[in-house]
UniProtKB/TrEMBL annotation:
<feature type="domain" description="PPM-type phosphatase">
    <location>
        <begin position="28"/>
        <end position="224"/>
    </location>
</feature>
<dbReference type="InterPro" id="IPR036457">
    <property type="entry name" value="PPM-type-like_dom_sf"/>
</dbReference>
<dbReference type="Pfam" id="PF13672">
    <property type="entry name" value="PP2C_2"/>
</dbReference>
<dbReference type="InterPro" id="IPR001932">
    <property type="entry name" value="PPM-type_phosphatase-like_dom"/>
</dbReference>
<protein>
    <submittedName>
        <fullName>Serine/threonine protein phosphatase PrpC</fullName>
    </submittedName>
</protein>
Length: 270
C-alpha cells in the first residue's frame, strides 16, 4: 500500500490543534481534532485543552497503545489518561465547557486481512472499494448540532423545564456552552472528553483489505462547504492531500470563510 499524509495549522493559529498518528509498527493510522476551548486555560507551555487532548491521543496510539487491545479499548484508555491529566491541572470536570476534548478517526490493520476502525465526532473515514463505490464508513455527529440542540431545548420546554428563551442562545458563546453540555448524549455529538459516557457512542466496525481500493481519514478542516463527503473524497483522490488543501485554503480566503487546521491520511492499496 501507499500512504500519503498531511497536517497544516490554520493561518490564524501558532500550532495545530489537530494531531496525526502513523504507527507502522502496530499498523495504526489516525487523525485527532481537538475541540477549541471556550475557557482560557493554558498549561506551562502555553498550550490549550484542544492541543493537549489531541496530542495526548496521538501519543497514546503512537507509543502507549497495547497490541492486544481493540481500538475501542484504546480510546477508552486514552480517555482515562485525559481525565487524569485534567484532574492534575484541577479542571472542573463537572462543567462540560471546561473539559478538554478531541474528535478521532483511527484504523488498524488486523490479522487475516481485516481493517478495524473507530471514530468520534466529525473526523471521518471514507472508503472506495474495488468496484469504485465510495462510502463514508463513519457518521459526522457534529453536523447540524445547532439545530439538534435547539430541538432538544424545545422538547425540554414542552416538558416544563425552565430554560432561557432562544434569543439567549443567539450569543455564540452561550450556544457553544450549551452544545458542549450535549457531548455523548442524545441529540448531541460524540467526543473524547475524559468522561466514561463516551464509550457507548464510539462508532466502530471493520472492512476487508481485499475489498478496498482507497481509504481516506480526515479532520473537518478538509471539508469543502459545497461538496458532499463523497465529492471531497474524489477531489482529494485526484489532487492529493497537499494540492487539495492549498486549493481549499485559497477558496476559504477569497470567500472570507472560517479556516481550520487541515489533517488527513490517504491509503491506496496496490
Amino acid at each position: 500500500m501507499k500512504i500519503e499524509s498531511f497536517l497544516s495549522a490554520a493561518p490564524h493559529k501558532s500550532v495545530s490543534e489537530d494531531s496525526i498518528v502513523l504507527n507502522e509498527k502496530l499498523n495504526i493510522y489516525g487523525v485527532f481534532d481537538g475541540a477549541t476551548p471556550i475557557t482560557p486555560f493554558k498549561d506551562e507551555n502555553g498550550m490549550n485543552g484542544a492541543y493537549i487532548a489531541s496530542a495526548l491521543f496521538k501519543d497514546y496510539f503512537s507509543g502507549l497503545y497495547q497490541n492486544d487491545r481493540s481500538l475501542i479499548e484504546g480510546i477508552a484508555a486514552a480517555n482515562r489518561i485525559l481525565r487524569d491529566k485534567m484532574k492534575k491541572y484541577k479542571v472542573n470536570q463537572e462543567k462540560y465547557e471546561h473539559l478538554w476534548s478531541t474528535c478521532a478517526a483511527i484504523i488498524r490493520f488486523e490479522n487475516k486481512g481485516i481493517i478495524s476502525f473507530a471514530q468520534l465526532g466529525d473526523c471521518m473515514i471514507i472508503a472506495e472499494d474495488q468496484n469504485g463505490r465510495i462510502k463514508a464508513l463513519t457518521k459526522d455527529t457534529v453536523k447540524d448540532i445547532n439545530n439538534r440542540a435547539k430541538a432538544w431545548r424545545e422538547e425540554q420546554r414542552k416538558q416544563g423545564v425552565n430554560m432561557p428563551a432562544e434569543e439567549f442562545y443567539q450569543d455564540s458563546t452561550e450556544q457553544r456552552i450549551f452544545n458542549r453540555s450535549l457531548a455523548n448524549k442524545p441529540y448531541g455529538y460524540t467526543v473524547a472528553n475524559g468522561k466514561g459516557e463516551v464509550l457507548p457512542y464510539i462508532q466502530h466496525g471493520h472492512v476487508t483489505i481485499s475489498e478496498m481500493k482507497t481509504l481516506l481519514i480526515i479532520t473537518d478542516g478538509l471539508f469543502h462547504p459545497h461538496y458532499s463527503i463523497e465529492e471531497t473524497f474524489k477531489k482529494i483522490d485526484k489532487s492529493g492531500l497537499y494540492l487539495y488543501s492549498l486549493e481549499l485554503e485559497q477558496y476559504e480566503k477569497l470567500n472570507n470563510l472560517r479556516q481550520d487546521d487541515k489533517t488527513g491520511i490517504i491509503i491506496r492499496f496496490k
